[in-house]
């Protein structure tokens, strides 16, 4: 029999290796490690100087610490990684006194280990490993082999490029073990620095724990650079991470490619069926193509249906947020709660943006919402959508989103906006400050004349469609906090933060659910603030205190802002009889001053 005795003066080296591998979960005094076909590790009690008395049994299937099963390869890899053993082992006896004694040996049941000799620290022909992974870890753990990269191939390969280095260790699988058949450790190049080794393919290793963390962050749409930053904190520094940013990027690509397109849709439908079993109010519908494949897909959960019953007076339907892996337009249907928070009323993937597809969407939406039509709807500037709305929702007031109008105007009027002094200010004033159609027309005509834009085709296009987007035409309709572009712009950013264009539909839906939960969480927070806290008063007006009892906190703060602005004006007599100056009271470093904003002439 042969035996190698390795003495580790710092007991924490082994304990740390076992803890990191998850083999033990607490402090140990003596560990007896017995490997037959598997390992068994037992904490053993001992008095100073005595032999270990605890019985050791061999579990042929796995290793156990108490009730915990351990893969033998996990233990071997942990010991190799920590540099405690230098090669394959059959029986390990670990004795913790002042240090730890590890004794790889070969024995039969009940026999004593005899004949001490040193095991070679370098690989040799005939050396056996339990797996190719164990062989790789062993080879890479040797200091002399930290000079170059190794690879695993099923066929003969070319020499390493640049230096034509022949150094290698070849292992071949024979029966249940991997046997070393060729060893050549002579390198013809200088060793790489420790900081360069981590870029060698053979030295890059993503552990199971790191993979799970990367997958968790990936599923939450965290960018690769942010993932590397998290790993850097865990490893102490970026240079300690045993793999590269490119490795993480490749892993994320493989995660997205796990399922084929057909399998993706099948899993999505299966997931919807599971949700419907848990929540009978969950609704989904598919529009099938001529070949019986899924074209468009609509879904809405129970919470969204309840929210629509309360806040479904006005909805926003926008197909421009983003697309998914299959370039299907993604269109959420959103609204606003009584706390001023965005709520989701459903979502749809569109196979195309034709009239009949939009008709199917709105008909399906009405079916899901028990036939309740919205009073108002805001959309992007899609003509086919307008036709579908007029047919399916004839009583609903349709308005184009101001954010899209501004964005398209910037694209088409960029030269004018940048080149004509005062044009952008005049255009904004005409749109925002007109109180009725007559004021708008007068202001528009004056602007066109002032900037010599008569005949400009895009300006004429905007004017011809004015009743679909100019605010003064919607004064009598309910569009809560949607008259400006801020909500659509913030929602656009929010969706891009949660969903990724390369995602499969199934993953896309998972991210959408997280977004929906995030919206509900913000609404819950506002509800808590309204119920549990008191607002600050500033005016002393009785109506301010009275209204604080009726409004939600978010709405009351909006009211306070309007009240604050409305009380910052004063009027004084003008130079002519029956004329008045309207002055805005401004604060400048706590000094009051007045600004004349208009003159009202009497008649």
Automatic annotation (TrEMBL):
GO terms for cellular component: nucleus. It comes from the Eukaryota. One of its GO terms (molecular function) is zinc ion binding. Residues 315-408 form the MULE transposase domain. InterPro entries: FHY3/FAR1, MULE_transposase_dom. The keyword Metal-binding applies. Its main location: nucleus. One of its GO terms (biological process) is regulation of DNA-templated transcription. Keywords: Metal-binding, Nucleus, Zinc, Zinc-finger. It is found in: Nucleus. Putative transcription activator involved in regulating light control of development. Belongs to the FHY3/FAR1 family. This is Protein FAR1-RELATED SEQUENCE.
């Amino acid at each position: 029999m042969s035996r190698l005795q390795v003495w580790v003066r710092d007991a924490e080296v082994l304990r740390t290796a076992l803890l990191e591998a998850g083999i033990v979960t607490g402090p140990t005094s003596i560990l007896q490690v017995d490997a037959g076909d598997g390992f068994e590790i037992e904490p053993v009690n001992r008095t100073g100087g005595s032999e270990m008395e605890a019985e050791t049994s061999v579990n042929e299937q796995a290793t156990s610490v108490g009730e915990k099963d351990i893969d033998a390869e996990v233990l071997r890899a942990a010991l190799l990684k920590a540099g405690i053993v230098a090669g394959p082992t059959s029986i390990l006896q670990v004795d913790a006194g002042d240090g730890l004694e590890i004794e790889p040996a070969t024995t039969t049941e009940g026999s004593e280990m005899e004949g001490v000799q040193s095991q070679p620290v370098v690989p040799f022909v005939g050396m056996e490993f339990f797996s190719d992974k164990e062989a790789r870890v062993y080879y890479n753990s040797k200091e002399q082999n930290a000079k170059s990269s190794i690879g695993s191939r099923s066929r003969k390969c070319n020499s390493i490029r640049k230096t034509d280095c022949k150094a290698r260790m070849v292992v071949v699988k024979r029966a249940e073990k991997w046997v070393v058949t060729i060893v050549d450790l002579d390198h013809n190049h200088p060793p790489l620095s420790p900081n360069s080794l981590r870029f060698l393919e053979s030295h890059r290793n993503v552990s199971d724990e790191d993979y799970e963390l990367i997958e968790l962050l990936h599923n939450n749409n965290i960018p690769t650079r942010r993932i590397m930053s998290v790993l850097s904190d865990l490893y102490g520094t970026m240079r300690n991470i045993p793999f590269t940013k490119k490795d993480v990027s490749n892993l994320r690509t493989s995660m997205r490619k796990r399922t084929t397109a057909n399998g993706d849709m099948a899993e999505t439908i299966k997931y919807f069926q599971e949700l419907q079993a848990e929540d009978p109010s969950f609704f989904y519908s598919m529009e099938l193509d001529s070949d019986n494949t899924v074209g468009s897909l609509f879904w809405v959960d129970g919470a969204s249906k309840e929210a629509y019953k309360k806040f479904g007076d006005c909805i926003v339907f926008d197909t421009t947020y983003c697309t998914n892996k299959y370039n299907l337009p993604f269109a959420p249907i959103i609204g606003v709660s009584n706390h001023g928070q965005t709520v989701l009323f459903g979502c749809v993937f569109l196979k195309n943006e034709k009239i009949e597809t939009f008709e199917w969407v709105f008909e399906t939406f009405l079916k899901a919402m028990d036939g309740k039509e919205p009073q108002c709807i805001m959309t992007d500037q899609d003509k086919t959508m307008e036709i579908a709305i007029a047919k399916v929702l004839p009583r609903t007031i349709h308005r184009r989103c101001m954010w899209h109008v501004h964005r398209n105007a910037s694209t088409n009027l960029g030269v004018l906006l940048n080149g004509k002094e005062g044009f952008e200010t005049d255009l904004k004033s005409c749109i925002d400050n007109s109180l009725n159609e007559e004021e708008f027309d007068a202001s528009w005509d004056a602007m066109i004349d002032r900037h010599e834009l008569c005949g400009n085709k895009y300006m004429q296009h905007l004017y011809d469609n004015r009743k679909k987007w100019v605010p003064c035409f919607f004064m009598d309709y309910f569009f809560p906090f949607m008259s400006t572009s801020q909500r659509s712009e913030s929602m656009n950013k929010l969706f891009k933060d949660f969903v990724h264009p390369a995602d499969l539909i199934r993953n896309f839906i998972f991210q959408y659910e997280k977004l929906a939960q995030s919206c509900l969480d913000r609404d819950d927070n506002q509800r808590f603030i309204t119920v549990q806290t008191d607002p600050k008063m500033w005016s002393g007006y009785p109506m301010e205190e009275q209204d604080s009892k009726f409004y939600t906190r978010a709405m009351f703060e909006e009211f306070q802002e309007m009240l604050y602005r409305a009380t910052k004006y004063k009027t004084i007599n003008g130079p002519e009889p029956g004329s008045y100056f309207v002055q805005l009271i401004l604060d400048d470093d706590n000094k009051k001053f007045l600004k004349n904003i208009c003159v009202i002439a009497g008649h």
